[in-house]
Amino acid sequence: MSLRSKTLSSFKNLMRTCQIVFREDQLALEASRQRIRSEFEKAKCLTDERQIQELIKIADDAEAILRTTVVQARLKEDGRYEVRLRKDMPLRDNIPFKL
């Protein structure tokens, strides 16, 4: 796979993941889209293959973190939060903290 196609694939994966993670939250969705575009735009003129591969790795890692750790919560009328878990979200055991 060429470097250009890897870059494009990372960009598309990040955008898709943001659409899934931030669905129904237009403010977060728009902010994430703008940030992704600006970061890829900044790196547009890079020619060093190693730097480009490093940035692709960062983008792929960011996508994985978004997909596996970010949840949406909505405040309900009774003061509690309703959390939306996605099917692809890995559930981890809660670890109680002691103070």
Write a compact overview of the structure shown.
It is built from 3 helices and 2 strands; from the N terminus they run H-H-H-E-E. It has helices spanning 3-21, 26-42, 49-69, and strands at residues 72-75, 81-84.
Throw out a few tags for this protein.
mainly alpha, two-stranded antiparallel sheet
Mean pLDDT across all amino acids:
89
Helices and strands, in order, run as HHHEE
Query: How large a portion of the residues is in β-strands, by DSSP E?
Result: 5-15%
How many individual β-strands? 2
Report the structural category: mainly alpha
* Low-confidence runs: none
Q: How are the strands ordered across the major sheet?
A: 1-2
- Count of helical regions: 3
The main sheet comes to:
2 strands, antiparallel
- The rounded Rg comes to 17 Å
Helix content: 55-70%
- What form results from the Cα inertia axes? elongated
Cα distance spanning the termini: 50 Å
Architecture overview:
With 99 residues, the chain is mainly α. It has three helices and two strands; from the N terminus they run αααββ. It has helices spanning 3-21, 26-42, 49-69; strands at residues 72-75, 81-84. Strands 1-2 form a two-stranded antiparallel ribbon. β1 and β2 form a beta hairpin. α1 runs antiparallel to α2 (26-42) and α1 (3-21) packs parallel to α3. It is elongated and about 55 Å long. The model has no long low-confidence stretch (mean pLDDT 89).
